[in-house]
Description:
Blueprint: E1 31-35, H1 40-45, H2 54-65, E2 74-77, H3 94-100, H4 102-112, E3 116-120, H5 122-128, H6 139-142, E4 147-148, E5 155-159, H7 182-198
Parallel strand pairs: 1-2, 1-3, 3-5
Antiparallel strand pairs: 4-5
Helix pairs in contact: 2-7
Amino acid sequence: xxxxxxxxxxxxxxxxxxxxxxxxxxxxxxxxxxxxxxxxxxxxxxxxxxxxxxxxxxxxxxxxxxxxxxxxxxxxxxxxxxxxxxxxxxxxxxxxxxxxxxxxxxxxxxxxxxxxxxxxxxxxxxxxxxxxxxxxxxxxxxxxxxxxxxxxxxxxxxxxxxxxxxxxxxxxxxxxxxxxxxxxxxxxxxxxxxxxxxxxxxxxxxxxx
Length: 209
């Protein structure tokens, strides 16, 4: 388990969080995948989205079925630790923790310099853009629509967090989406790679105007 760096001092999660993860992947696709926070398996390995973890196994399956390689992406999270009770989305400390962890995200994204960042879930969407809150501004409405990142020179492609595809009965934080949405996640991964390679003219969805 990694020891959190000095920059984590003063964070709302510093005294209650577990672990600290470095990003994973070579980033040769010029695409980053951003999730939410670490789970128990990720704390142990100090890396995001472990293949033996529930959400990580789904992400790995989607990458494989998309005909892509895991190491081609840069994989990271909105925050690099695991909050108490694995709770970040909607927690009273969510915004403060995400803001404090920006120093790490900035360093990782600056080094990888992705052209596209896939926001896996609403927490990542809030972290990367001005969206994520309000009617028609969450993943459920914006999934698949590329939007500009607010802090980086990259496009953000919102998609489902792999945990949303988990059955509700799992011990991890399963969602209501179900595996029927795996095809959407696969499509989004492939599209992100295509956009990074070929470029895209971004147009704001009409329902956001």
